[in-house]
Amino acid sequence: MSQAPLAGLARTTRPRTALRRFLALDAVVTGANGVAYATASRPLGELLGIDADLLLELGLFLVVFAAGVAWLASRPQPPAPAVKLVVDANLLWAALSVVALVAWLDPTTAGLVWTPLQAATVAGFAVLQ
């Protein structure tokens, strides 16, 4: 993602507004990813070389997580401990994605590209938040 759209999204004199926007963007991207994993776990599993049952479970988790992040984004003043939990969870997800890629997944070429890409995206959300 280029800096121009991010700068436009974050452009505000109120840090809480920028935080809420990044939380909302995180919720949308995470929710879409979760819905895709949950509803298309078999074809995506074949494409990525990742077990379909694992993708289904991850998808369901991501949908619930995204709902929580969306709720935080809707708060006028998101509670700091909850935001820190989201940031920590995003960092953990990014790290575990890389560990899984190296330690126990046997992905296809698409999976080798997708896994670090989504890990970097999630880490990016953590940094922005």
Q: Work out the helix count.
A: 6
Which sheet architecture does the biggest sheet show? none
**Low-confidence runs of at least 5 consecutive residues:** none
**Element order, helices and strands?**
HHHHHH
Tell me, briefly, the overall form: elongated
**% residues in beta strands:** under 5%
Distance between the termini: 16 Å
Please bin the fraction of helical residues: over 70%
* Total number of strands: 0
> Structural class of the helix and strand makeup?
mainly alpha
Mean pLDDT level: 91
| Rg over C-alpha atoms, rounded to the nearest angstrom | 15 Å
Task: Walk me through this protein's architecture.
With 129 residues, the protein is mainly α. Helices cover 84% and strands 0% of the residues. It contains six helices and no strands. The protein has helices at residues 3-10, 15-39, 41-48, 52-74, 80-103, 109-128. The radius of gyration is 15 Å and the shape is elongated. The two termini are 16 Å apart. The relative contact order is 0.15. The mean pLDDT is 91.
Keywords:
mainly alpha; 129 residues
